[in-house]
Amino acid sequence: MYKINFNKPLFAILASSMLLGVTACQSMPNISMPKLGKKPLQAEPIYVADIVLGELKTLEISTRREPCNSKKPMQCMLVKMDNKFIKIPYNAIKGFVANPNTRYKITAYPLIDKNYQQATGQWQLQKVLQRK
Q1: Beta bridge partners of residue 127, listed in sequence order
Q2: Is residue 90 a contact partner of residue 66, using CB atoms and an 8 Å limit?
Q3: Residue 24: strand, helix, or coil
Q4: If you average pLDDT over each of 17-31, 44-58, 94-108, which comes out highest?
C-alpha cells in the first residue's frame, strides 16, 4: 500500500489554490447593463465659461504684499481701486509681473464669466501707466 505524506507548506499552497479556484468560478453581475425600469447613467455636461472683458479699471499697486484669504498659502498685492484697497494674487493679472519693491499704476480689465455675470478674479493688463 502507498502512503501519502502531507507536508504542511505544500498542503497550505494546495488548499489556498483550491479556494482561489472556487471563488474565481463565481460569476459577477454585469455592471454595464442598467436594471429594468431605471435610466442608464449619463455624464454631467462639462461647464465651459464664456469669458469677456469687464470695464477698464485703474489699479494702483502698492509695494506691500499680504497673505491672501485662500486655502493655499499665497501672497497678494495690495491694490487701490476706486478709492478702496483690495487684495489681488500676484499672478492674477495676465501680462503683468510686479517687482515687490516698485509701485505701479496700471489699467486692466477684469475677466467676467458671462454665464454668471460675475468676475473670475483674473485680470488682463491693458497698459502700465507709471512705475515708481
Answers
A1: 107
A2: no
A3: helix
A4: 94-108
